[in-house]
Model the fold of this input.
Amino acid sequence: MPTGLGARAAKELTMTEEATETLEDRLSGIHRALEQQQLDHVDAVLADLEPAEIALLLESLPPATRLQLWARVPGGEVGGEVLLDVHEEARSTLIEDMDHAELVAAASELDATDLAELFEDLPQQAAQAMLGSIDEQQRARLQERLAFEADSAGRLMRTDTVTVRADVDLGVVRRFLRLKEGVPDNTHALMVVDRDGVFVGALPLARLLSHDDGLTVADLMATDVDTIPAAMSAREVATLFQTHNLVAAPVVDEAGTLLGRIVVDDIVDVVREDSEQAMMNMAGLDEGEDLFGPVLPSARRRAVWLGVNLATAFLAAWVIGRFEDALDKIVALAVLMPIVASMGGIAGSQTLTLAIRGLALGQISRINSAWLLRKEVGIAVLNGLLWALVVAVLAYLWFGSVGIGVIIAAALVINMLAAGIAGIVIPLLLKRSGVDPALSGSVILTTVTDVVGFMTFLGLATIFLL
Done:
């Protein structure tokens, strides 16, 4: 057995190995242990993991193995937190495998925020059973939380705020906190309210601990505190935390009454979900889609956007078909045609991505959209001229035709210009229509660049080369 420095080094080596264990390693170990019915090993692994890590493991397993692992997940609070951390589709499959008693046990340990999120995913009978199992106070908190929109500050907030009055001495506040035996996690300040519960300021704990008992809360409290309306969207709350470098903020109703607080830990989840949603929507997928979900539901969801893409592809094919004579006589057109569409598609995707990001962050509005459009037009013209010259020279060297070089150069400039305009206009129009630009913007953009590219290139060739 190593001793002294050797023991410490061995311990540090073990901790490093555990920290660097990959998800793939865990998956392999869990899968092998389940196959060999080494359930004690499975239980030991799960006991060392956080709920979010268990959720990631569950999402990474096929349905049958997932249910085997889920049966070994501890119940109560851990099981409830795991349910909240898995994506929606995976969560629904786990809920279907649970009886009402298990659901009630998992839900009973959750706070009002988490309980509201889980409640909406429960089957009706299970939801009714859960309502009947919780006490009246918890039921009232749940109903209050469900009154807010799903992605609002009212749903996101915590209600475990510690409130004090402005006219109270600091010594009284300290004695009050000792009687409470501490403050809730991530409490950086006490909320100051008046007799009616209206928020008037915040008393940072650092000030409370570093000043004399004789001072009052009013002497030290901060009054220039950013408050969050309960109806504000979660995405807007995340932006506010980012731009104002907030660690925590009070949530108030229309009358200014304090309802709760939001801390930066809550915002991390919002940012992660938004980034996942944007990435999945760009491919026409649902953010909650289960990677190992059943074949038929997954195929059905993807078939919708494949059908939309097929329709737009036929539109582009129809445009090509209108110039069949030109393609028959000049084979070089068929060879070079994809270049025009591809360059326009890439240029448009760059603009579209920036526009969608700007809309998500609230950076684009009617005030600056015209300026942004002019900027993208300028970029499209400059890049179009640059790469049109390159493509024209290569086309001439390849086919020995000045006419074809000039035609493809002109078509490239026109299509990249159209792509730049479409990359800004399409997301703005979709946003104004209430459609998520990330979900359908790329499909529409591809159609525009394909149709404009093919029509311009083949049209100019028909006019000047035939």
Remarks:
- Confidence is low (pLDDT under 50) at residues 1-20.
